[in-house]
Amino acid sequence: MPRNNPVFVTGALLALLFSAMSVPVHSDDTAFVLGASEWSRPRSAAAVIDMPPVANAVRAWQAVNEEQMHVQLQLVHASGEEGGLWAAELRDWLIALGIPPPVITLVPAGQASGRLELRVTTRSNRSSGEE
Fold first, then answer.
1. Is residue 65 part of a domain?
2. What is the phi/psi pair of residue 107, to 5°?
3. 3-class secondary-structure state, position 27
4. Which residues contact 88 (CB under 8 A, 6 or more apart)?
5. Is the backbone of residue 39 left (phi > 0), alpha (psi -120 to 50) or beta?
6. Is residue 128 part of a domain?
7. Can you give the residue range of the structural domain that contains 62?
8. Half-sphere exposure (CA, 13 Å, Cβ side) for 106?
9. pLDDT value, residue 30
């Protein structure tokens, strides 16, 4: 694969950004919880990268993605406007940091409003071309 290929560059950027962090990866789903107090801090690219749940979720996604092509990064948020806005902002940060938009999905759920769950999910057992 040529080094100027966008996929190679994105993978190299993610590897560089998250290389210092290691996280165990489970075979099916891995979840990381981001609390409202952590998210309420001033945000920049460096601050988002330094949030352990975000960094660990991206690292887990990257590790699994190297082996399986059907990996999603789900942002499970509280139903309602506040939860949706929080998840959408985090999605924008993840895209800015090099995660391809199609692998990120926003999932409204009936969970507490003070948390957002980042789930790395695999769909390797499905034989159809489901999205």
1. yes
2. -125, 105
3. coil
4. 106
5. alpha
6. no
7. 6-122
8. 18
9. 84
> What is the total count of domains within the chain?
1
Q: DSSP labels for 39-81?
A: HTS---HHHHHHSHHHHHHHHHHHHHHTT-S-EEEEEEEESSH
In a domain, 129, yes or no: no
Residue with tokens 């895209």: 95
Whether 39 maps to a domain, the answer reads yes
Contact 53, 16 (CB under 8 A): no
The token pair that represents 32 in the structure block: 């990381």
CA distances from 10 to 6, 18, 34, 62, 105 (A): 6, 12, 24, 11, 19
Res 69: pLDDT: 62
CATH number of the domain residue 66 falls in: 3.30.1330
Q: What is the pLDDT of residues 93-124, one digit of tens each?
A: 999 999 999 999 999 997 778 899 999 998 65
